[in-house]
Amino acid sequence: MNLRDRLIDCLERREVDKVPALSVTQTATVELMRMTGAEWPEAHSDPEKMVKLALSGHEIAGLEGVRYPFCLTILAEALGCEINMGAMDIQPSIASNPYSGTSEIPEVPDDLVDRGRIPVMLEVTELLKKEVVGNVPIIAGLVGPATLTAHLMGTSNFLIGFLKNPEYVKKFLDFSTEVCIKHANNLLEHGADVVCIPDGIAGPDLIDPDMFESFIKPKYQKFCRDVKGIKISHMCGDIDAILEPLSRCGFEGISVEEKITNLRAAKEILGGRSKLIGNVSASGTMLMHSYDDVKIEARGCLEEGVDVLAPGCGIAPDTPLKNIKSLVDARDEYYQKG
Ligand SMILES: [Zn+2]
Fold first, then answer.
1. In this structure, which residues have their CB less than 5 angstroms from ion ligand 1?
2. Per-domain boundaries in the chain
3. What CATH number labels 3-337?
4. Widest pairwise Cα distance in the chain
5. What does the pLDDT look like over 112-140, one tens digit per residue?
6. Residue 312 Cα, ligand 1 centroid: separation in angstroms?
């Protein structure tokens, strides 16, 4: 069974021989950038560098998938945000919010596919597809609708808007959801196997679970209905309080971070509707501890029944290469020893 089939079968709830070990969140590290010569910030915009760096997560670090891009700013940039492109060890960030201080709702642009770095993303998708020839899953990331809304109107306007101007926020979320659907379908049509939408700002660390239910869940349901392919939700923080409604949105997989401490219970809440992905601490264990510590934590995830073994969040740029390799090693040992 090749790596692509294994991941797809797993997420589509068919029997698999082994738990896939990969990352649905960002995979680039400084070590991989040095080894490939594809460095940040250029690799965020240069298609060949993006391809090289994305492939290195599989070819060098051993992850059983290829995940790109390495930032959360592509849609925001296409819709008018200025972007600070960061540095070799700093991710790009949003430098302006074009819809702060207005009550305007933008229209989904007809030329979305031609804007900003979206053409780069589509080119990278096609190049990756040629490279992996169907053997390794291609996992494309794009921000979720809540994060995109926060980028465009500013995070504080977004959070305050829930209380002061809920109708406006709802309409803006409709717009962002349409943009996300359009971009996700484009990525899938160009050859991505899976799309993953990190959307931490919709989690209970920032918005009340009741608001998740009334504001976000309907948008996720629409996203999942309209996107023609496999969809994964990634949310940072302790999302215990929204796991149940999140599992009713239509995502094939839900990626959680290490703040979900009881994976067995989380899996029960998901009830088989979505597969559980996670959750070795990316900012703690993988970044700061040893190869063996990562292995121990990974084994714990497998014992608790995780469906896909993965870092809990984006891999930090300074993470040692051997700590990424440790994920697949842990999975292999788990099956050898039983
Ligand atoms: Zn995260």
1. 236, 313
2. 3-337
3. 3.20.20.210
4. 60
5. 999 999 999 999 999 999 999 999 999 99
6. 7
